[in-house]
Amino acid sequence: MKPWFMAALAVFFAAPPVKSEEPHSPGRIILMEEARELALKAESGKIEYGELQAREDKWIYSFEILGTDKKIHEIDLDAHTGKLTGKHLEPLPMWRE
C-alpha cells in the first residue's frame, strides 16, 4: 500500500467521532395540544409561549403561563410521557411591570 493511504487511514480511525449539533429525533411524543392542556392543569392561567425543545438528550415541552396571580410560570413537561419535569417562576418582563 502507498504510504499516504496508510497515513490517511490512520488519521481517519484515530480521529474521535464528531458530535452532531442537531438533536436526535424525538420519536413518538404527545401532541402540542395535549401538552398545552397538561400545562394548564399544572398552572391555571393563559399560555403566553410554548415550544418543543431538546434539553440534555431529552425532549421537553416548555410553556410560559401568565398565572391568575399575574406572575409568569414556566412549566416543563416530558414530551414522551406528559409528566411534569419542572415548574418555576420567571421574572416579569419590564414591559409587564
Can you characterise this structure?
By secondary structure, this protein is of the alpha+beta class. The protein has a domain at 29-92: Nuclear Transport Factor 2, Chain: A (Roll), CATH 3.10.450. 24% of the residues lie in helices and 36% in strands. It has helices at 3-14, 32-42; strands spanning 45-55, 58-67, 72-78, 84-90. The protein has a four-stranded antiparallel sheet, with helices on one face. The longest helix is centred in the N-terminal third of the chain and has 12 residues, at 3-14. It is globular. The mean pLDDT is 82.
For the structure shown, list the relevant keywords:
Nuclear Transport Factor 2, Chain: A; four-stranded antiparallel β-sheet; alpha+beta; 2 helices; 36% strand; 4 strands; 97 residues; 24% helix
* Outline: globular
The CATH class of the domain at 29-92 = Alpha Beta
- Termini separation: 73 Å
CATH topology of the domain at 29-92: Nuclear Transport Factor 2, Chain: A
Q: Give me the number of helical elements.
A: 2
Mean pLDDT: 82
Please specify the SSE layout and strand pairing:
Elements: H1 3-14, H2 32-42, E1 45-55, E2 58-67, E3 72-78, E4 84-90
Antiparallel strand pairs: 1-2, 2-3, 3-4
Short description:
This protein has 97 residues and is an alpha+beta fold. It has helices spanning 3-14, 32-42, and strands spanning 45-55, 58-67, 72-78, 84-90. 24% of the residues lie in helices and 36% in strands.
